[in-house]
Amino acid sequence: MTLTAFTRRSEAAAATGTAEPAGPDGHGATPPAAPRRSTRDADGLAVASFVLGLVGLLVMNILLGPAAIVMALLALARSTARRGRALLGLALGIADLVVLAFLVTGNGVVAWNFGG
Questions:
Q1: 3-state class of 1 per DSSP?
Q2: What is the spatial distance between Cα 12 and Cα 114, in angstroms, rounded to a whole number?
Q3: 89-102 in b/e burial notation, b at 16+ Cβ within 10 A?
Q4: Whole-model pTM?
């Protein structure tokens, strides 16, 4: 016979004589509230967008630019405490795509190099 955590808690409370507060339906304790998204996740997204945008100026800007833009927008949507870093990541991600556009129009291909 399998017991759920709620049943085990109810049986333990009955054995010790302590009563659990009734929930909204009148049948025991209320379940814990879902954890709220922390600003720590949003701060991590802001820093990651900044780093990806910065690295994207030198290499793989076709991948890192859009990734930086998406991460910056997610960080701003989740109201990060590092708003300036997220905005810099957004600007660098856009700059990555602008650099890519200039290099593609100059070389005629997506691949580019530093040499002549």
A1: coil
A2: 71
A3: bbbbbbbbbebbee
A4: 0.63
